[in-house]
Every structure is written in C-alpha cells, then in structure tokens.
Write a structure and sequence with these properties.
Belongs to the methyltransferase superfamily. METTL23 family. This protein is about 30% helix and about 20% strand. Strands 3-2-1-4-5-7-6 form a seven-stranded mixed beta sheet. It is α/β, with parallel strands linked by helices.
Length: about 200
C-alpha cells in the first residue's frame, strides 16, 4: 500500500494524461504549462519534451516529492525546468509570483476528498489571473460518492469530460497498474464558467 507521499509513484492517471499531451503535442510548443502535484512529473516532462514552457510543482511540505521532480528532470535531460513548492489552498509568495500559464496539469490530484476544495481554490486563483487557462486533469475513480461537481459550481468553474478513446488512451496497458485498487481513469478539462454559469 502506498505511503503518505503519493508523489513517489507513477500512477496510471499520469500515464493517461501523458498520452493526452502526446496526442496533442503539435499544439504544445511555446505553451506555458504548470503541473500541480507533479510527483514523478510524467505529464509535465512529456509537455516539456514537446516544446512547452513547463514549471513543475508539488507541496512545499513534501521536500522529498520536490526532490523527486528535480531528479526526474535531470534524468530526462531537462535541467532547466523549474520546480517550485506550491501547497494547494495556500497563498504563498511562489503562487503570487507565478508567471502566466495557459495549461494547468494535474494527474490524480483528486485523491483525498479533504483536498478537493484546496485544489480547486488554487486552480480558480490561477484561472482568475489567466482567464483563458485550462486545467487538464485525469483521475482514478475510487468511489462513486466522491464528486467535485458541487465545488465546481461554488468556484464558478465548468468541466468537459474527455473520452479516453478520443486520444487512444482506452488501452488496458496505458491505465494498468500493479498498485492495489480499481483503475478506471477519467479525464476532464476544467475552465472558468461564463457569467451565466455556462
């Protein structure tokens, strides 16, 4: 069973999000990308290899995860990719001084229900500063009782479900894992809702 520092594992959701990035790689050069809860940083590294200007982040309270991000960058010949500490739901100098972003990435950040609102608070803050930004996120379905729909409404965000087959990620080997539990992966794109809620 995984230890509390989840960011030290390559989760199936990261592989699926990396596949989405690869499938859409032609649109990535020059795009400004921030990966939150990066852990081993697979999606962010793929985006960087495809020409995006990437910043990786994980909780400032988890130095081991931040070090893991840095090691992943070095192992993939991406020493220039910045790694910063960002804790969801916390306003910090790092959050306030972030450069503009076009895409926010998050694979399996919706892991613990207690963190859901903190994640969306941070995403909403970033989108208020960058109104055209999108949050591309994949997550593993762990419970039918866990939902972010009410929080999306509260934070004036909308989401579009992205079918895995639309980017060739519905293959068993992509979302497979030796980790315990169910491995149904979903993807959505979250953005600011219009003033009328759409």
């Amino acid at each position: 069973v995984p230890q509390p520092q989840y960011g030290l594992y390559a989760w199936p959701s990261a592989v699926v999000l990396a596949q989405y990035l690869w499938f859409h790689r032609a649109g990535l050069p020059g795009r400004r990308v921030l990966e939150i809860g990066a852990g081993v940083s697979l999606p962010g590294l793929v985006a960087a290899k495809c020409g995006a200007k990437v910043t990786l982040s994980d909780s400032e309270e988890l130095p081991q995860c931040l070090e893991n991000c840095r090691r992943s960058c070095l192992m993939n010949d991406l020493p220039h990719v910045p790694v910063i500490g960002l804790t969801w739901g916390r306003v910090s100098p790092e959050l306030l001084s972030l450069a503009p972003v076009d895409i926010i990435l998050g694979s399996d950040v919706f892991f613990e229900p207690k963190d859901f609102e903190d994640i969306l608070t941070t995403v909403y803050y970033l989108m208020e500063k960058n109104p055209h930004a999108q949050f591309w996120t994949t997550y593993q379905v762990r419970s039918a009782d866990w939902s972010i729909e009410a929080l999306l409404c509260k934070w004036k965000l909308k989401n579009i479900h992205v079918p895995l087959q639309s980017f060739n990620a519905d293959k068993e080997h992509l979302a497979g894992s030796s980790l315990p539990g169910r491995h149904t992966i979903e993807m959505m794109i979250i953005s600011l809702a219009n003033s009328d809620g759409t």
